[in-house]
Batch of 3 targets.
Target 1
Amino acid sequence: MTGIGAALASGMAVGLMVAIPIGPMGLLCIQRTLAYGRAAGLATGFGAATVHLTFGSIAAIGLDAVMGAWVKASAHILSIVSAGLLFWFAARILRRSVSVGREHPQKAEWLSLYATSLVYGLTNPITILLFAAALPAMTMANGRPPVLPLVSGVFLGSAAWWILLSVGVSLVRHRISDGVLDLTNKIAGLALAALGTTMLVGTIHQMLQ
């Protein structure tokens, strides 16, 4: 495999590795796909993929140590902001009823879903630290690879997962009743609130030590 091909493959592996674990972003993508359709899930997923591209680019040009140090220095602030965003997502989800026939048809709404996903991803310290550790560990064994194919691979690997997840969930969406869909939506909202609470409590505990 050529250097470019190897860098692309390595980047895709990193993108998949960071995207696949079902955390808050995965839960949000599933919830939005179930509530509003495939386009909503894709908008959310591509927001996450853009975040992965951003952090992957920073790590690929050799600033992973700087990024890791910055995150550690501001981890408490980032965690509080991330927890606040999870509470905001949860509140919006819990106060809305959804149905199979209801989708987001407007481009402005898709942009809003993309933007909120992007903002959450950029403030999530876990994602930043994953890239600071994972990308150098997986790609630097044979010298620093070319940056462009590496970060392109990160985006493609991440985007492939979000496409697969959104399409897969959307296929299930029209097979369930409105009652089940609304219940699933409420459970997702409560789960996001629980994740936000866990993050906030953990951060406060660390700050008081």
Target 2
Amino acid sequence: MSYSITTIIIAINVIISFVAFQDEEAFYKLCFWPDRIWHNKEWIRILSGGFLHANMPHLLFNMISLYFFGPFVEDSFMVEFGAAGHTAFIIFYLLAIVVANIPDLYEHRYNPSYRAVGASGAVSGVIFASILYSPLNKIYIFFIPIGIPAYLFGILYLVYSAYMSRRQADNIGHMAHFSGAIFGIVFPLIFEPTLFMECMHKILSL
């Protein structure tokens, strides 16, 4: 499998996050901050916040997930988009960051204290693109030895993210996860609508 673009994206995340770990000023200049975006027109924050992380566990969790799912989606894009596959993957990843942040950009437009960081929305997009391409693949959660069929994981993930977003009981960007996941399905379908029927056929053929 091809690791080229995924490896570069991981490296950029690690470099920017480590710089921000050491430099608080850089962290606040780059983080996703709706109030600054709306009132100061600092639009780059919609994208730059997706390359920052709050701490090492946050960075590791996202990058490990990207490492396992990114190459498969890269390869799938090479099949779907041909020679433009790598370019499509880059565009897909960057758009996933932006799309994942849009609901919170609107929701917190009058909340000057709200800030967020992390690649979770984009990584959710990558994971759900992989589910669309291979719905019967097994997904393992943490150290549970039994794999969950990808399509079932996807359903549970969306339900959980929507529920937790409504509760707002923690500091996790559940709506960003949800939005990124939906984008991960929609983007490939825009260019190859038959993927949906192929996915459903695989699931129903069980």
Target 3
Amino acid sequence: MESSGPGIARAVAGPLWLLAWGPDRPPPPARRWIKFRLYAIPLALLALAGLALAAAEYLQNTRGTAFPVAVLLGAGSVLPVALVFRRPLLAWRIALVMEVLGVLGRGPSEAWPWNPVQIIALLVVLAVVGLTQRSAVTWVATAASLAPIFVFAGSTNPWGPAVLYVAVVLVADTVARRRQSHRMLAEKEELTALERARREVLEERARIAREMHDVVAHHMSMIAVQAETAPYRVPELPESAREELAAIAGSARSALADMRRLLGVLRAENGETPRAPQPGLGEVPELVETARRAGMPVTLSMPDTAGVPAGVGLTAYRIVQEALANAARHAPGGPVRIAGRVHHERLELAVRNGPAVPGRTPPPLAADGPGLGVAGMRERAALLGGTVRAGRDENGGYTVTAVLPFAAPVRPDAERTP
């Protein structure tokens, strides 16, 4: 019980500070009224002006207040209502001051020390404060507003108006709590839906990873095993064939390693992806050498590529990788020329392969256009703000050209993340 006193004091001190000096943020306007405010605001101001004149006339008739003072008191009576929907705390502060000033010149025949307009205005202000502020702030403001009633209306019955004020604030606070509960429930449902969608994405990624592991990885493993064991199963193989099989086994093992990294990405949650080094322009010569060992006549010309960002280098590597695979499929035996240069803060890349050697006719392109490899190259380049063009040339070969800027342009409709 000893600690309840300081706790109550802290609970009251915070709302008191907010009511007296705290920031007064305007509540968000109701969407249903936004389209009517062009007409509602002038009509409301006109009505408030009429109520101010009515309050001034009441003060003149019942108290004999001078006209300038009566006008000022009448305007002060309705001013909180004019401000309450934009600055509810400021409106309450003015209404509290007017509770004290409103009793000036009270006549002995008056049963109530405030004019009727001021009483209604205070009810409106307390109702809006109850709808827009925290419960603690609302009830502290209500208690502060009731104090002048018991001070200045002690000779009459102050309990009737006090009960009316408390009832209005109770209804407003209940409505505010109900709105807050609905808002929190909607936010919780939205978070639940996002979590459900995230879980579905993770489950689909896990399913794809299982399929790739059970089907593709199995076949790649079998290729590697068969290529490695062929020299032992077929002892009469010449040395050149043994080297080819060793190269096939190495490529299969490398593909399996890449696939394991991809499966790790698919199975990762919360962004905890594997952080193995990614290939870049520095690995392109090794990629070209692997293609040469497979029998492809490849020439590489890529001088002065220092300072290329890692993301651009990775995209260039994947484009060269896919272009070499396409050349092996569609132009078997034909020469391949790879050229790249840095020009105006961008990497320009070209992979050209000649037509297939006689007797090794390449398969025709699909009727519906390029396959997934070309689409993947374009998607990678688009992420950097670059472009990729691919198609047959006039010599019967195939050309892939890419322009990869070092800094992607900022689109006005996209949010940038650090």
